[in-house]
Design goal:
668 residues; alpha+beta; Beta-clip-like; PUA domain-like; 3 domains; 20% strand; globular; DNA-binding; histone methyltransferase activity; transferase; H3K9_HMTase_SUVAR3-9; nucleus; SRA-YDG_sf
Length: 668
Amino acid sequence: MEGGFAGNTVQPNSFDKSKVLDVKPLRSLHPVFPGETNGPPFASAPPNGSFPSGFSPFFPFGGPQGSPSTPVLNHNPFNSTAVPIRSFRAELPGSNGENVRSSNKRKLAGSSSVKKKVKRGNESELELAALTNFKPGISAAEKDDGNRELVENVLMRFDALRRKLSQMEDAKEPHSEVFKRANLKSGNIMFTKGVRTNGKKRIGVVPGVEIGDTFFFRMELILVGVHSQSMAGIDFMPMKGSDIVGERVAVSIVSSGGYEDDAEDPDVLVYTGQGGNASADKEASDQKLVRGNLALERSLHRGNEVRVIRGFKDVTNQSSKVYVYDGVFKVQESWIEKGKSGCNTFKYKLVRMPGQTGAFATWKSIQKWRADPSSRDGLILPDLTSGAESTPVSLVNEVDDEKGPSYFTYISTVKYPKSFKLVQASVGCNCSDACKPGNSNCSCNQTNGGDFPYIANSILVCRKPMIYECGSSCPCFRNCKNRVSQTGFKVRFEVFKTIDRGWGLRSWDPIRAGTFLCEYAGEVIEKVKEGQDGEERENNNYVFHTNRIYESFKWNHETESAGEGSSNTSEDFDIPSPLLISSKNSGNVARFMNHSCSPNVFWQPITYEQNNEAFVHIVFFAKKHIPPLTELTYDYGTPPHTDEKESNGDHGKKKCLCGSPNCRGYYY
DNA sequence: GATAGCTCAGCCAC
DNA sequence: CGTGGCTGAGCTAT
C-alpha cells in the first residue's frame, strides 16, 4: 500500500521528514548509503504457478454489499464447514483383510506403491490412500522437461501434501508407528503419481529453477530435477557419445556441512568427495575413485557445468536444513588430501561460471547482519517498531536518500472501535497446558472441524473460511500451538525502499510455505470516503478491504474424492460482515506490503476470544517458499463492480509494476 | 527386472 | 542444547 502512495502520488514535501516514525533516540543515527546498489534483485515475484485450472474470481458476499453495519460475530463455530481428517477416508477395494505382513517392502493396494508399516486394519493406511487420490495433471513431456510454472506447481503440491501428512501424524498417539516422516512419504506419493518435473537428467541449467530458489527438503530437489539423489551429495549421469565405456559426469552437488568443505568465497567451493566415513559398523577409510568421485573427476576433464546447491542450518528451526540453488560451476582442479580422520579424501575445487548473480553471497551477508545489524548497508533504523514487537524490523534504504516513510503510529494488532460489540459465546477448551492435535475432547479442535490448524514451526496446514485460535478463556498456556497469530511475528523483517514502488517489506529469513508472517494491524473503519482530492485517495491506499474481489487459488492438498462443490475443501473466506481496516495513521509492517498479481503471500481470517469478545483478524501467511530478501507481496484484489456508480469508476486504479508474467496491468 | 548397496536426511531420544 | 542412533528414500549397479 505504501507503493501506490510513494510511487506515484506523493509530493516530496507533503510530509514532515523530521518526524521519521517518531523514534527519538535513533533519529540521530546517521544513515550510510552505499555508492551503488548491488544488492539482490527486488520483487522477483515469479509467475503464479499454482494449479492452472483453478482460477476464477469469486464474490465473498453474495449480493451487493450492504452498508458496513456493526459486525456481529455470532455464527456458531460448530457450523464450520471443515471436516476432520477421518472424513477423507476412501473405500479401498479389497484392502480389508489383505494386510497380512509378508515383507516390509510390500506394496499398498491399488496403483500406489506407498510402502507401509503394517498393522491390522490400519486406519491411517486408508487415510493415506485417500490422500493419494488426486489427478497428477502433469504430462509425460512435462515430467521430462519443466518450466517455472511447473516447478512452482510441483513444489506447492508437495508441500500441501506434506503439511497434511504432518497434521495427521501430529494427531496420532505419541508412539504410533505410522507417518513418522511426512516429507519422505509425500515425496514418495508424488513420485508414484508422476507429479514431478525435469525428471530427465541434464547438464547445466534446469528449466524453471532459478538461482536463489530455496528448498527445505532433499525431496524437493528431486521433484524439480535440480539434484536427484535423496541423500547422496553428488549426482551424475552417463556421458553420451563418450569414447570411454560407461563414462559418467557429475551434474550437481549438495554442499551442506556433512564433510569438510571450504565455502568461504561465494564464487569458489572446495568440495569433498563421497565415502570413507566412519559409521556404526565401519571404520573411517580412504575414499575411492568411484561413483560420484569418479564423475567429478571426469567433469574436471570434460569441463561440463555442475549445479551447486548449498545447505545451511535453518535459522528459524535449528534442527532442520534449508537448501539454496546457487547456480552452475565448473570443476577447476582436484587433489587428494588427508582428512581429519587421517584417511585420504578427494577434494574438488569448483568455480562459479561468470554472468550469474550468486545466491550464496546474499546469504552470507545476511548472516553478518544478523550478528551485527548495524553492518547492514543503508540502515536507517534498527527497529522501526521501537520494541513493540519481540522481533526487530530494520528500516533500510539502499536506493535513494529518502529517510523513511511518512509518519504513522506503530501498533501490533487490529483495533476495533468501542461501538463495535462483537458477541460470541466464548467456548474455551479445558486443555491444561497446551492443546493436543489428536484430542477430540478439546473444544478448540472441534471448532476447527477436528483438524488442528497448525503443524510444527507454526506452519498453517490449510486455508479455511475461518480459523479459530485459543482465546483468553482457554486455560492452556500462551505457548499452546493453537495461538500462532496472537503471539507476534517471528520473521526477521526489513522495510526497504524499492526502486519504483515506494517502501516494501521483505525478510532476512528464508520462509517456508505456510509460515505465519504478520497480521494486518490498523483501525477498523466504517466506510471508505470516495473522494477526488489527493488526501482521501492517499488514505484509501491504506485500507484493507475484505469486500473486494480476490482471485481464487488452490493452496490446500487436493483429493479426487473431495471434488467441486464439496464444502470440506473450501478455501474461500467467511467473514460475517465486510471488514475495512485502515493503516493510514496506525499500523504494523503489513502496511508496507505491496501488491502483486503473482503474490507470494495470502491472507486468512482468524478469530479468538479476548475478554469475552471476539474479533476477526486478517492474518498473512507465506503462499510458497520465499528466499531471503525477496519482496513480500499479496493480491490487493479489485473493488466489486457494484461500486461503480458510487464513484467515477476508476476507484483509484494504479499502474501495476509487479512485473510478473500474469500481471493484470493495474491494481487498486 | 528385482534387489542389495550407497549416501552431505531428518527425526527423536538422550 | 549438541550429539548419536535409526530408519529411510531414490538412484545406481549387479
